[in-house]
Amino acid sequence: MTTAEQTPAQAREPEAPERSRWAAVAAVALGTFLLVTAEQLPIGLLTSVGSALTVSEGAAGLMVTVPSIVAAFAALLVPMLVGSLNRRILLLGLMALMTVANLGSALAPNFAVLVGSRVLVGIAIGGFWAVAGGLAVRLVVPEDVPRATAVIFGGVGAANVFGVPLGTLVGDLTDWRIAFSSLSVLALATLITLLAVLPGLTAAAAVRPKLLWTQFRSRGVRIGIIATVLIVFGHFAAYTFVSPALQQLSGIDERYIGPLLFAFGVAGMIGNFVAGSALSRSTHRTVLTIAVALAVAMPLFQLLGGTTVGGIVLLIAWGLSYGGASVGLQTWMIKAAPRAVEAASSLWVAVFNLSIGLGALVGGVIVDTLTLPGVLWLGGVCALLAAVAIWTARTDEALR
Known about the structure:
single chain; 400 residues; mainly alpha; Growth Hormone, Chain: A; 2 domains; 76% helix; 0% strand
């Protein structure tokens, strides 16, 4: 695939390691746990931050929007700007930036400074993800890559299940500044852990704009990007409004929404590791199954989610399906661009983050102007289109 479309001078990934470094994989997973927690924690602190700094909850939402958008651009720009800098040094520097940025959030005297600190958080998130997303191929032997990628992305599910709720609880019981301070301490602990166990990661070829652009010459990369946009866009268009959907469509009391979202997160973690195991047997079949499952689960809320039991069952099925999406799509990109993993991962992280923001934005417009079930149908249609795109790569040997 890409091996025939890129010369070694354009992109050559370093040789696979002779042994698996699972301690380093676990440290990177801790980093992904921190990144997602830092990105989403302000969702639970909007009211308290808005009250303390005299801004509306809508304005306080910039604490989430700004880093997501910045991360999308940082995923492309950071690897290009640092050139051939050793990736170990880059990851350590980005984690140091995350430590300082969250401390800045905790000490911010006004909302403008707080948003400025969140810009730095976005840079750290985008830059770290661009490298960490495809790092499994640098840390473990080839046969362990799917499992190691699942471990790394397990930090995402753990952040949704434990990190964000616990951080919000800390903010509620103490003060929102303490919650951000806790993030800074966790970032420092992650920095020390990475320093202790992460090996040197030489960049064999710098990521350049031309290298990023040439990735689209690979049919596998193009399909992976299209599938990512459709799946992530559709998911967040619908999931952003899952709470009112459960209440209005399934008749579930508001008191049970929190525990159900926790169950969704647990299901997502299970789906992540189930997908990681299945990917070692067939990347194409696994990612296609995820897309089809999402295409079925979301629209069925309108048809079968009219009862409490139906709503809960479909929510868990949705969580299991989407839980495998990140590890599945990232593994797809690794297989599609084996000699330019970092460049392909940078593109993937950028479109992933943009799709999150655009999905939530379009979902809000649909809910306000049309109907709540409209976002569930949109999510299903997007997943179905992704499944069709994925199916077209069924003859690609590299993705089997």
